[in-house]
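From the methods appendix. Each design record in this collection lists the discretized structure first, followed by the designed amino acid sequence. Records were kept in a plain field format so they could be parsed without special tools. The example shown here is representative of the layout used throughout.

RECORD:
C-ALPHA CELLS (251 positions):
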C-alpha cells in the first residue's frame, strides 16, 4: 500500500511537471514538485493550475456577470475614469468594450469608431468589437465589413463568434440564402448551444418551422445537461432564443 500511495503522489507531481513545461511556467517548480512531491503538488495546483483552468475562468465570468447585474455601470465608470486620466488607445478600447457589455451599443459604436481611426485600427479585437456594436445598432452593412476583414486577415480570431456574427449580419442586409449557409456551416463546425440557438433564432424570424423545431429540440437537449455554471454562461443566448420562440408563436 505505501508503494501504491507513493506512486499516486509521484503521478500527481509528474502531471504538474508536464503542465509546467507545456505552459512555460518557471522551471523552479520542477525542483519543488520532485523535491516535495506531496506538498509541492498541492501548492502548484492551488497557485498555478486551478487559477488558469476553464472552471476558474468560467467562475470569474459568472462573478463578473453578477456584478454587472448589481451595478451595470461599474465597469463603464472605471474605464471612463482610466481613459480620462490617461487617454491612451488601450484605455479607449477598454471603454468601448465596457460600454458594449453594459448594453449601450450606440455609445460603444461611437467609441469603437474612434478606436478604428487610431493606431490600432487593424487590430482584430477592435474590429470584432466594432462589428458587435454596429450589429446591435442595426448597422448590419458596417458590421459585415469589419467581420469580413477579420475573417480574411485573422481567420483564427474568435472563429465561432465571428462566424455567428457574420451570419447575423448577412441576415440583416437581406442576404438570407448566404445567412442560412453561414448559420448551417457554424452549426456543423462548432455544434454548440450558441450556434444552434443563433441559427434557430434566424429560422424563427424567417418562418422556417422545420429548421427551428429541430434546432430548438437540440438546444433544449444540450441545456438539459447544464450545471449552474453553464446555465449562467449561456443565459444571454437562452433569453434571445426564448424571445424568438415566443415571437414566432404569436405570428
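DESIGN:
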Amino acid at each position: 500500500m505505501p508503494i501504491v500511495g507513493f506512486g499516486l503522489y509521484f503521478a500527481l507531481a509528474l502531471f504538474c511537471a508536464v503542465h509546467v513545461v507545456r505552459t512555460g511556467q518557471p522551471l523552479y517548480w520542477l525542483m519543488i514538485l520532485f523535491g516535495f512531491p506531496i506538498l509541492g503538488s498541492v501548492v502548484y495546483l492551488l497557485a498555478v493550475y486551478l487559477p488558469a483552468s476553464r472552471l476558474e475562468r468560467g467562475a470569474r465570468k459568472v462573478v463578473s456577470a453578477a456584478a454587472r447585474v448589481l451595478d451595470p455601470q461599474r465597469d463603464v465608470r472605471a474605464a471612463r475614469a482610466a481613459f480620462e486620466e490617461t487617454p491612451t488607445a488601450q484605455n479607449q478600447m477598454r471603454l468601448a468594450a465596457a460600454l458594449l457589455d453594459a448594453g449601450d451599443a450606440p455609445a460603444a459604436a461611437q467609441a469603437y469608431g474612434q478606436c478604428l481611426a487610431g493606431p490600432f485600427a487593424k487590430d482584430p479585437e477592435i474590429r470584432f468589437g466594432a462589428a458587435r456594436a454596429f450589429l446591435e445598432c442595426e448597422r448590419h452593412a458596417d458590421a459585415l465589413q469589419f467581420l469580413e476583414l477579420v475573417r480574411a486577415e485573422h481567420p483564427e480570431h474568435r472563429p465561432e463568434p465571428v462566424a455567428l456574427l457574420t451570419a447575423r449580419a448577412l441576415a440583416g442586409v437581406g442576404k438570407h440564402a448566404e445567412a442560412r449557409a453561414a448559420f448551417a456551416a457554424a452549426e456543423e463546425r462548432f455544434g454548440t448551444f450558441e450556434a444552434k440557438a443563433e441559427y434557430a433564432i434566424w429560422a424563427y424570424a424567417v418562418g422556417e418551422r422545420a429548421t427551428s423545431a429541430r434546432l430548438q429540440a437540440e438546444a433544449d437537449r444540450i441545456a438539459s445537461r447544464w450545471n449552474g455554471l453553464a446555465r449562467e454562461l449561456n443565459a444571454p443566448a437562452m433569453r434571445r432564443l426564448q424571445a424568438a420562440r415566443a415571437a414566432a408563436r404569436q405570428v
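APPENDIX NOTE: DSSP finds 15 helices and no strands in the chain.
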